[in-house]
What we know:
8-stranded antiparallel β-sheet
Amino acid sequence: MKFTIERAKLLKTLSHVQSIVEKRNTIPVLSNVRIEAMEDGISFKATDMDTEITEIADAKTAETGATTAPAHMLYDIVRKLSDGSQVEITFPDEKGQLTIASGRSKFSLSTIGVEDFPVISGDKLPTSFVMPRDELKDVIDRTQFAVSTEETRYYLNGIYVHAKQEGASNVLRVVATDGHRLACVESPLPQGAENMAGVIIPRKTVTEIRKLLDDTSVENVNIEISENKVRFNLEDVTLTSKLIDGTYPDYERVIPTDNDKNLELNVKELAAAVDRVSVVAERTRAIKMLTHENRVTITTSSPDLGSASEDLEAKYENESLEIGYNFRYLLDILAEVKGDTVRISFADAASPSVIHDTSDASAIYVLMPMRV
């Protein structure tokens, strides 16, 4: 195997594949990236046994062949090479190692044979549809923050994606919750996804595909789904992942339908006020929202640090209410509101609040109150 590739191209590809590789592995070959020089390009593949990424990069191939080499070390080497340089990669050298040469720099790395490298992709997945890249980015951004990191409730460690009939139309619904907050976003149902069963895409896979979407110029992403796998195709990059094997809870039961007290205010002003007041709430993370007629007060206090409050103009015509929130959870939701105003609906101080973007009916957020 022997090929020459631009350093920038190689660095971009390695940044994608090494991201999948875990820092510590009990199986040595899982620390490696599989490199295969083909006549029409170079294939780079990495896996952690649950997720697999394959990327094809353009290069000048002198000799075809394949091997595996340490992913993070290879990435660090290429990252420190000179901008604009050409990188020549050869395997095997006279010692049976992988050689990386660029300018006056030369590195030799130990390898593991490709026969030991596991492959989780390959099979065809029955459900296939195309989704615009910007639409996919949008539904991920508006739900990803609410994914749980608590490993005991593993079925919440991802986003739940399913087809749903909403009135006269069908939609693709994406949901995430960690038990403290819930994000539910709808997107037009792509052709081919009509009979898709609900699937839970793991948190790591969601994070990786979101990074890839920023690094690609493709307009559409081809998505394939089976009972236990999902695959994203972005031109030269393919990400395949196992799905979370579990039953997602009936999230619709926790979305209140009878919250009759509505508070409407400017989302940027609210976010800025919460952010300022939260300086005093860093330890407890608790703030209080006190509603008055056409006004709201954001307040917090700490025995050790002091107190803070800020008044905001608002549209509110019900009896006064005092409700506590985790300010970080509230700010996460407000960051995804696209319009100028946000509507927060309450039943009482002990019940979940529903947060709407007044300019976009396709998203709904639920936030549990906090005892303050």
